[in-house]
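for the record, two folds in this file. i put them one after another cuz i was lazy. first one right below, seq on top, structure tokens after. the second one comes after a little note so u can tell where it starts
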Amino acid sequence: MITSLGPAQFHLLLVGTLWTLALSTVAFLFGGFGGLAVALCRTCGLRALERFAAAFIEVFRGTPLLLQLFIVYYGIGLLNISVNPWIAVSIAFMLHASAVLGEIWRGSVESIPRGQTEAAKALGIHYWFRMRYIILPQALKISLPATIGFLVQLIKGTSLAAIIGFTELSRTGTLLSNITYRPLLIYAIVGLIYFFVCWPLSRLGQAMERRLSPVRSQ
């Protein structure tokens, strides 16, 4: 029985942290591409695409992330496809991030004054060029605080991946707790690691929100 923490145990926590960051990065980057596609579909003016994107958002925002992890992991297994936990959790988190970021960015796009869109249409600017050069740069800037806030939630949400056997920071903490019989110390360290990863991002989001908020009249 191991009752103390040594270099080997801290190395395991470091590896778990790196897997947490890797999962968060993959989910956020690929979910960002998916979210952009969802936001564009929601605002393209084509009713079929708008309804499909709206349904996608409602499904993934209206169901627990834990349930989505189970469905992706066991659903792929039902197709007789062997999949390891890393692939399953990556797919589940990417789909979840696509829905949430799509809704965040959809709201930002629709917050841009309609006069800009109408002026672009009057000049004969095509939808894709209009979005790329006029609307999206403004919308993405407006959405930065909410986007960073979601990234913080995503990092903390990766702890749910332990449920299907993916060994990230939270699961590493559980394994070390079972080995050392010092759960309070282990989980305190795990909590501090999450804090030091998420706190700078939270502060950045708050700073961006203050910077981008309209100037209030005194």
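(here's the note) second protein begins now
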Amino acid sequence: MIVKSDVVLIAFLLSVASPFAAQAGTAMQTKGKAFPPPAFYSFCSRQPSLCSTAGGTKVVALRPQLSAQLNEINLSVNSRITEVSDRAVVGKNDDWRVPTVSGDCEDIAILKKLELMKRGWPASALLLTVASYHGEGHTVLTVRTNEGDLVLDNLTSAVRDWSSTPYNYFARQAQGNGRRWERIGAAKSVGTTATGI
């Protein structure tokens, strides 16, 4: 988990346009199976619908209205939920759940997935994703779109292409089988094939 002192620095870095940021959207290439985070399976047994990545829509065509929804959900959840460690909230080091007032990064990512699904976004395009930053674990929600794999992050209100974030990505949920996780490889430019929601 990223400590509070890093939050201001990360928010600043993510809010400044980098000259090296990708100009076109990119998609995560996956390269085989990965182990999920330890608390993931108990979360799935309690919340199977939020664990799911089933559905026919793999990549969402990102129209202006949908782009606005991503920004709105990211900002709204970030402003409502205070980041607090699982140890402080539930007395355990790792416990995935839907937060109501406070939670850590994976809880916040789960709530964003729930909010988007309520608005009709397909679970198959909403993938919980783990990364690291300065040696600390971090979880975000990756949204697969025709404009690239976009990241909704509790450390910034900006929705960005995953390749324009400061993280080292390890794994994400597999599309079509949310209980399986895949290792993340390089970035590839996105095509134009997508379906609407």
